[in-house]
## 1
Amino acid sequence: MKQYELVILVDDNETAIFLNKDIIEEECRDAKILSYTNSQEFIDDCIENAKSWFSVPSLLLLDINMPGKFGFDVLDELEDDFDEFDLLDIVLVTSSDLNRDIEVASRFHCINGYIIKPLTKEKLIEGLN
Amino acid sequence: MNDSLLNITETHRLLNRQLKKAFPEGKHSTSGVEKLIELVSNSYSYFDEERRLNRRAEEISNKELKEINSELESKNAFLDSFNYGLAHDVKNHTANLRGLLQMLFKYQKKGDTEVVTAITKKLELSVNQMSSILDGFLFLSAAEGSFEGDRSEINATELEEMVRLETNYLIEGRDLQMTFDFNIDGLSYSQHILRIILVNLISNSLKFARKEVKTVVHARMTKKEDRLLIDVVDNGIGMNLDDENSTMFKLFDKRRKNTEAKGFGIGLFMIKRILDSNKGDIEIVSKLREGTKVRIHLPIDL
């Protein structure tokens, strides 16, 4: 797996963050980990910190179904704003195996993988390929 | 045996088979799963009812047919969101439980008791959340929210404790001032219904709190003549009511875009149902970035 320097977790569920953080801490030992339970806060911070975030190898684990802005809304909003957005590896981590979500995800070129919760080391490696 | 019973038995059998596949050693089978089976069966009986309506429709006039069609449409829309929400919520919590169990095994092996304790707490929390979600859905699928026969004298201290316990998972690590002020001496009402209303209103206040200020939530219940007033006031992110009011009571209305205050799940929808069937009313005053005041009126004697 790529040596990420920054991993960002966005999920409205604290337990999911707790679980995903544990996997990331083990798989990306040297990476700085940021977590957000509010998708709007993530967008705001991303806009503010884009330069530093996108200048290092970064990974975003993004939930789909969140109150306020959905994962797809987040990508919609950020994708057009930054040319460097392509440098970020993005994996959706969701409990949804609905075809309509998978289909919407496939329309986003910036998405690298789609993982059905719970996240595991194996799923992460597979999702990134 | 009629069709509907056959269907339920069949559903039970299929579900049991799926569950056995998912949990081959039967280790994780809990009463929650039993509830889930019951719930899904209930869902299927809704479909049966629709089918019966359909059959009748064949035999009657066009005018009545049109009416029944529109009834079916709204019922279908309800079932769609009901099933979507149920599937999403249950899947989410099941995934959390699976993940936590995997993590628990890992740290048990390592002998890291500190982490094991933390995971155990999260497991307990997840099970509680799951069970309150299932309670909510059972409540929605079974009764229409009316409570005759479920009346007892309300114990304010006990009610406050229950509400605190059920909203506890939203509180952790937060700078919060939450007060309860229940002046309801001798009130006879359904504790179940009051708990659902308070838990859902307070949960919304906590979920939609402003990060930059100390969270303040004040819950009050008062008797006023023949009515019970329930107020929940917060200093949260607030809503633009012109935009939100008409749709905020829908099930799982989380998909709307570009407004700050969104994301009500089944909570307000349940409250709406309770109010509809108990002749209650709701008033909401809210201002973006200042907070929300919700007042519920319920007649004490129906």
## 2
Amino acid sequence: MTDRVEGRPLEEAGLIELAKDGDVQAYGELVTRYRELAFRTAFLITRSAADAEDAAQDGFVKAYYALERFRARDSFRPWILRIVSNEAKNRLRSARRREGLALRAAQDHRSGDAAPSPEAVVLEVETKEALLHALAGLKENDRLIIAYRYFLELSEAETARALGIRPGTVKSRLSRALDRLRDRLTTERDAREPLEATDG
Amino acid sequence: MADRMTRADLERSLIALGSTLEYPPAPPIAPAVTARLLAERAGARRPAFPGLALWPRRRVLLLAVAGVLLLAGTAVAARLAIGAIEIRLIPTPTAPSPTAVESGPALGERVTLEQARARVAFPLVLPAGLGPPAEVHVAESAFSARVVVLVWRADPSHPGIEGTPWSTILMELPGSTEPLAYKDILAETGLRAVRVGNHDAFWVSGPHQLTLITPSGEERFTVTGNVLLWEQDGTTLRLETALPKAQAIALAETIG
């Protein structure tokens, strides 16, 4: 997992400076760059495309007015993700609904795609579904730290900033989240295989 | 009891899962965000409706949000403007009832098509199949730019725009880097990004207001029809009809 903080720093810093001066166009450019990541993050939390879009939009608007508090030496990516994820969590809380499991994993690789990675081949469909199911049962913060590290591939430092926690606590929190995920996987597997579990 | 996965296995599986997750396509987001920011700024800097300036910022934002949710799906460039027309989002029409766009004198001086052609610096374009316009008007707008308004009467095969005798109102404005007109859309106004031929366009349905910036100030009009806004060959076009979107676009594509 690589740290991508250094990605086009000058250009981005320039856009942020322009946006701080009230250049809405420049800010729009930043939004365009981060919309996919922001939307995916929000979607991983809300599991609804409509809520994710609203959360991303509201998050970007709020972030614009908070730009004064953004420090130039920081990375914009975790900063915006923290704002968007908070919006998404608020939306989830106010909506108080779980629409089943909206997250899906691709069953087949679309034609024209590069060959699947060895990991993807190893990962059985059954495991994918079990993982998705177990993830859906985790608490928001556990799900989010796992999503940041493994799905969105944020570095530990970025994950810390995106979650608003101290960098030193990312490892331990991630460990605990993974433990709980493993517990859920085991419990759910046992529940699916009651006979085997009793006989074994 | 089944074995627990090792942590390494779990991490590998999660990374693999991450690479196969299906997300819904991310919507454009940026146009709506910039529209909201511009709408707020317009409210703060030069309020079209003075009451707006006195409201707390948060309330203005909230109202702008209501309007902007309709923007979901807009795919046009960040600045919400087409040629010389800038689209602004406003909460509610608090101004005194503006003139209907259809009322004669407000459209400017009535002229013939040929006179209109002679008086503007851009080539006038007409839709095919509607015949010659019933009336042609030329209005002065800001920066000495003239705006041409062409209207066609309603008849059994061309439904009328509510409250007007016209089936089609075509407004042509010179291309401009400065807005010559604002379109103020309300929370209940629909705004969609569409294409007219190869051009990015906006489809505005439902009630809204059109403000023309004239040498003597701003002229506001109420709009009841459905409007397409786009720019082609340096001319900004605004086509108002009672037609649904697909038919309006088909008519717009005959203009040239």
